[in-house]
Design goal:
It is a single chain. By secondary structure, the protein is of the alpha/beta class. The protein has 22 helices and 18 strands. The protein has helices at residues 3-15, 24-40, 49-59, 80-83, 90-101, 107-121, 147-161, 174-189, 193-197, 233-239, 257-271, 321-331, 346-349, 382-386, 430-448, 466-489, 498-520, 531-535, 538-544, 554-558, 598-603, 624-645, and strands spanning 68-71, 133-140, 165-170, 220-221, 249-253, 272-274, 281-283, 288-293, 335-342, 369-372, 379-380, 405-407, 456-461, 545-550, 568-573, 586-591, 609-610, 619-622. The relative contact order is 0.12.
């Protein structure tokens, strides 16, 4: 998309503010008005009117789903309705403007985000409430469904309300922590913490910090998006920022025992006062908000709780390390709120509610509230991909899966199910060769539809061993280079060779899939495109593709931001790709990793999420067994959500 197109879309969305459910006629009038305005300015970049209309219609689809809430109101004081008009909401309004003007959100999608974050915030305690209090809650979303945008909005509102120490627990790997920090740099802080830490002032402001006319809001971040930017006591003391001031302090940390130990020691040594009764150091007067991203991963105590002869839990049992540190952190604060975010809450709801110990404090059971978020209207999740049926397809709620799965069975010599870390992958199976060609076709088709600057990603996830991943990378690189050379030196109109091969895949696979998807998905951006137009973009699409081995470093993830004109990448990895990491524009996945753990298998599904304008170009190459497991696990997840609703 051209710069003129992006500006046109932003102007139309601003003009539609106040129109909760704009009609097609209203959208067309605003589009025509904006195009005429751009032409009057002498803007030579053409804006595709029809595409812009379809795009705005897609973004303005009203989210009619309602979150359902389980709550226990013991010891909770209602406060938000009485304080809401007194709070300025500077951070939230800035974030709201950023979502609309920079991220292309419509007002129709921001309104439910505003409502949902209010629902979470009002169930926390008023940060100005006197005395000792704590709360435990959980927000249940969907894999790759925008949970980060949700808790970024919550953080903005919490800071506005007076929570001035905010800690985000961001997964087990530094790559996910770095990605989460970057998202919060853009949506909450407003400056690049990595450049700030290096005292590099060039391009310092990012995200909300670059909005023209916005007030400069101060946030102190004691962590950065750099690879080694996790919490460090030495740097924290050097910066000299103390909790308890008027400006909010943010820390984005890994779920790591030593990091959490250092964090507790820092907070307690600065502001802790010894309680005369328990002799435990308590931080008074500083309301703490802890956001636990992927709250089912590592946060839950996995050690058995021993019972006495009366079947009551013994107080001196050991809990698993990270669970104990999170609980200890919360127990050192007089005022604390804990909110876990997860898409797979099986472990969290089976936490023993009475598992408190004198050493670690109360466990993380969501005793105060569970909020079950509905999927957004344009979300493509497990039910859409794998289908859903409770009673063998006879019930009214059942739905058929999208025809984008390609079951494969030719990979055993390449990657046996029981391979070891010293396995050397043989030649690529035909299914993976076809998957690579499909990715090139998907990239070319997106460009043919007008998506000129969007990211494109392919996932190859077949082993957890890094040495084996390197072998796969070499083979994939050789195959991609071969395809590039064939596309460069072959006549596109030839009846033989690579163009004929790609044309056959397009006719036999892509054309019927697009027709099928259009019958199931209401996306005005999904349009049929002629082969001749796709063919003209094939070589360009192929030479743009880079291959990256995802080994958990921040650089792997931050690369997207260094490519404003779009990055096309084949990401090869294992465990580092399993949780939380977002692969932008993911269209083709080649996935063989087996796990019988419900949460692990569902979280590995990086292909779930938002696919505006290209869901019909997405492909999932996987085994028959994995398809059956996903269907079973999706049924269990939907039944659990139904229990929440009930």
């Amino acid at each position: 998309m051209t710069d003129a197109y992006d500006r046109a879309a932003s102007l139309v969305l601003v003009m539609l503010k106040g129109e909760f459910s704009p009609t097609p006629e209203t959208i067309q009038k605003k589009v025509d008005l904006v195009i005429a305005m751009l032409q009057a300015e002498g803007n030579s970049d053409a804006v595709d009117r029809d595409r812009l209309i379809r795009d705005i219609e897609s973004r303005c689809e009203v989210w009619r789903g309602k979150a359902t809430i389980l709550e226990e109101k013991r010891n909770h004081t209602v406060w938000l309705p009485y304080r809401k008009s007194q709070i300025e909401w500077k951070f939230w309004k800035r974030y709201e403007r950023y979502l609309m003007e920079e991220k292309g959100f419509s007002e129709q999608s921001i309104i439910p985000l505003d409502d949902l974050t209010d629902r979470v915030l009002e169930r926390l305690e008023d940060p100005q409430r006197e005395g000792s209090w704590n709360c435990r809650g959980m927000v249940v979303g969907h894999v790759q469904s925008g949970k980060t945008a949700n808790y970024t909005g919550l953080i903005c509102k919490a800071a506005d309300a007076g929570y001035n120490l905010i800690i985000v627990l961001a997964g087990m790997h530094k790559s996910l922590r770095s990605q989460t920090q970057l998202r919060l740099d853009e949506g909450f802080i407003g400056f690049d913490t990595q450049r700030n830490r290096a005292f590099n002032q060039e391009n310092f402001w990012i995200g909300v910090g670059r909005l023209p006319g916005e007030e400069d809001l101060t946030v102190h971040s004691l962590t950065s998006s750099a690879d080694l930017g996790d919490f460090n006591r030495k740097i924290a003391y050097q910066i000299g920022v103390m909790p308890g001031g008027s400006d909010p302090i943010l820390l984005v940390v890994k779920k790591n025992k030593s990091v959490l130990t250092n964090l507790i020691n820092w907070a307690v040594s600065i502001k802790g006062q010894k309680d005369p009764h328990t002799l435990k150091k308590i931080v008074h007067g500083i309301p703490l908000l802890v956001i636990d991203d992927e709250a089912d991963n590592a946060s839950v105590n996995t050690n058995a709780i021993p019972l006495d002869e009366n079947d009551l839990p013994l107080d001196d049992y050991d809990v698993s390390a990270i669970n104990g540190k999170i609980r200890a952190l919360l127990s050192h604060f007089e005022k604390s709120a804990y909110v876990g975010y997860t898409a797979t809450p099986f472990a969290n709801i089976f936490i023993y509610p009475e598992g408190e110990t004198s050493t670690h404090g109360e466990d993380l059971f969501p005793r105060d509230f569970i909020i079950n978020l509905p999927p957004p209207p344009n979300y493509i999740g497990p039910s859409q991909i794998f289908g859903f049926s409770r009673n063998g397809g006879d019930d009214a709620e059942s739905q058929n899966g999208l025809q984008i799965i390609r079951k494969i069975d030719d990979y055993q010599k390449f990657i046996p199910d029981d391979h070891r870390k010293d396995h050397i992958p043989g030649k690529l199976p035909e299914s993976l060769k076809k998957a690579i060609r499909s990715f090139i076709l998907s990239c070319a088709a997106r460009r043919a539809r007008g998506d000129q600057k969007n990211h494109n990603s392919m996932l190859v996830h077949v082993t957890r061993f890094t040495n084996v991943q390197r072998g796969v990378e070499r083979l994939v690189n050789d195959e991609l280079n071969l395809i590039r050379r064939q596309l460069e030196y072959t006549d596109p109109l030839s009846s033989e060779g690579i163009y004929r091969e790609m044309g056959e895949i397009w006719d036999s696979d892509y054309v019927p899939t697009t027709c099928s998807v259009l019958q199931q998905v209401d996306d005005p951006l999904v349009t049929k495109v002629a082969w001749e137009k796709v063919r003209s973009y094939l070589y360009d699409a192929a030479v743009r593709i880079r291959i990256k081995l995802i080994n958990g470093t921040a650089k792997d993830i931050l690369d997207y931001n260094e490519h404003p004109d779009g990055l096309s990448v084949i990401a090869i990895g294992g465990d580092k790709l399993s949780r939380g990491l977002t692969l932008e524009g993911l269209s083709v996945s080649y996935y063989l990793r087996a796990s019988r753990m419900y949460d692990t298998l569902m979280q590995m599904g990086r292909w779930f999420g938002f696919r505006p304008g290209y869901i019909d170009l997405c492909r999932l190459y996987t085994s028959r067994d994995l398809v059956e497991w996903y269907q079973h696990i999706n049924l269990a997840s939907e039944e659990l959500r139904s229990e929440f609703d009930y």
